Automatic annotation (TrEMBL):
Source organism (scientific name): Xanthoceras sorbifolium
Source species taxonomy: Eukaryota, Viridiplantae, Streptophyta, Embryophyta, Tracheophyta
Name used for this protein in its record: Pentatricopeptide repeat-containing protein
SUPFAM superfamilies named among the record's database cross-references: HCP-like
Keywords: Repeat
InterPro entries: Mito_RNA-Proc/Resp, PPR_rpt, TPR-like_helical_dom_sf
């Protein structure tokens, strides 16, 4: 085969040599070629053993190449090479990582077929993956099967069971019952047990109970981990108990436990929602000084909070910082900044960010469709008084890109062009409005007809009115809701 000529093996191939070469090869496909080329030298009597098979399977799983990895498991059986359970578990964990719990179960069943008897470790690993993946029905069934197979309860297995029962409010009492019974089963709850209960309580909004467990945990000599502290801090922030959350943050740092990105993000989110975005900015600086890289959630939280407080310049600085880090702002973030500028009647600045968003290739999808529609219409309706040409170009861009246009947007453009005596554009907008199935209201028609009368184009005006009367498509109530509520643009013009 071609791989034989690719690499020249020494006369005496050893598993250690093969392991070293596979480890050194960064490309997993080339590593597999090396693996196969070693067995092509069968005249030298080389046969893969557990170490070479195990490493190659592990490399394939890390690269999400599960089919070739499972083929090697079958080959181990054919070549009468004993298969340790750790090799199977590496495949199970790989499937868990890519959210394929049913494949985890299949590989677990395959263990016995390939002559490897699963131990307690295998059962608990598979059980933990099922719980992590929220496959709770299968997880509880599997736990019963574990017990039937004679696997005794251990702190690890009961911790996983408690975690599963903490996921729903209906089963939290069962989790507490098992926790209380642990000593009777010869198992002492550890930091992980308490952490699991505290996390479950916080997720279900039972923050006072979580605080009690936290106190009990310390009296029992169990040290809270960064995950437990973060769960409780997040729960306190969600319950708007910011002073307590900040106090706990201080206590955590004083005991030498380093906060992680999630701790900082939870606090920043709570502070921003509480109207303290400047404190949130201080936390960002602290986080960066500790060499933690802010993520999309961190930046979104800050930009949202700053925009809510009208601190748009600071929000733009954070947006720029985010882009410098290589993170691409989404429609939601641009939407916050654009809305912020519209709220203070700075429609040209809003339009600049809308252009930046479009040029950045951020197109509407199923989830962001309503955001795109809302901000585009908002900007056109605000911009038409100050820069009608730009408003019209933005309107044309919306049509080209298939973004829905509100009746109020059509109305504002028609009114604007009629006042400026640009009747050609006004008539075009009305035509397109009707073509889109949006019925012009009385105000739109009145503006257009008045425009033509002013230009003494009585014939065209009469024809338009005549067409309108013939169609009888104008319902007085259609579009009148737009008159009832003052639009943002009208409010701004009144300032």
């Amino acid at each position: 085969m071609g791989s034989k000529s690719m690499f020249k093996w020494s006369k005496q191939i050893t598993p250690a040599q093969v392991v070293k070469l596979i480890r050194a090869e960064k490309d997993v496909n080339k590593a597999l070629v090396l693996f196969d080329s070693a067995t092509a030298e069968y005249a030298n009597g080389f046969k893969h053993d557990e170490s070479t098979f195990g490493l190659m399977i592990s490399r394939l799983v890390s690269a999400n190449q599960f089919r070739p990895a499972e083929d090697l498991l079958d080959r181990m059986k054919q070549e009468k090479c004993s298969i340790r359970e750790d090799i199977f578990l590496s495949v199970c964990r790989g499937y868990g990582r890519v959210h394929r719990p049913l494949d985890v179960m299949r590989v677990f069943d395959k263990m016995k077929q390939l002559g490897c008897e699963p131990t307690q470790k295998s059962y608990i690993t598979v059980f933990a993956i099922l719980v992590e993946e929220n496959q709770l029905k299968i997880a509880f069934r599997f736990y019963r099967y574990m017990r039937e197979m004679g696997i005794p309860p251990s702190v690890t297995s009961l911790n996983v069971l408690i975690k599963a029962l903490c996921k729903n409010s209906g089963t939290i009492d069962a989790a507490l019952r098992i926790f209380r019974e642990m000593p009777k089963r010869g198992c002492t709850p550890d930091s992980y047990t308490y952490g699991t209960l505290i996390n479950g309580m916080c997720r279900l909004g039972k923050i006072d109970e979580a605080k009690e467990w936290f106190k009990e945990m310390e009296t029992k000599g169990c040290s809270p981990s960064v995950v437990t502290y973060t769960s409780l801090i997040h729960g306190l922030c969600q319950s708007k108990k910011m002073d307590e959350a900040m106090g706990l943050f201080g206590k955590m740092r004083s005991t030498g436990i380093e906060p992680n990105v999630f701790t900082y993000s939870s606090l920043m989110d709570g502070l921003c929602k509480d109207g303290h975005s400047s404190q949130s900015m201080e936390l960002l600086e602290m986080m960066v000084s500790k060499r933690y890289t802010p993520n999309m959630i961190t930046y979104s939280t800050l930009i949202n909070g700053l925009c809510k407080e009208g601190k748009l310049q600071e929000a733009i600085k954070i947006l720029d910082r985010m882009k410098l880090q290589g993170l691409k702002p989404d429609a939601g973030l641009y939407g916050k900044i654009i809305t912020g500028f519209c709220d203070i009647c700075k429609f040209k600045e809003a339009a600049n960010f809308l252009d930046e968003m479009v040029l950045g290739g951020i197109s509407p999808n199923r989830l962001t469709w309503s955001i795109h529609v809302r901000i585009h219409n908002m900007v056109v309706q605000g911009l038409y008084r100050r820069d009608p040409n730009r408003a019209f170009h933005l309107y044309l861009s919306m049509r080209t890109r298939g973004i829905s246009i509100d009746a109020a947007t059509y109305d504002s453009l028609v009114t604007c062009f009629c006042k400026k005596s640009d009747l050609q554009k006004a008539a075009r907008v009305v035509e397109e409005m009707v073509a889109d199935g949006c019925v012009p209201d009385e105000g739109t028609w009145s503006a257009l007809v008045a425009g033509f009368w002013n230009q003494q184009k009585v014939l065209q005006a009469t024809e338009l009115l005549w067409v309108e009367l013939l169609r009888k498509s104008v319902e007085p109530e259609v579009g009148i809701q737009n008159k009832d509520k003052l639009s943002q643009a009208e409010r701004c013009s009144a300032l």
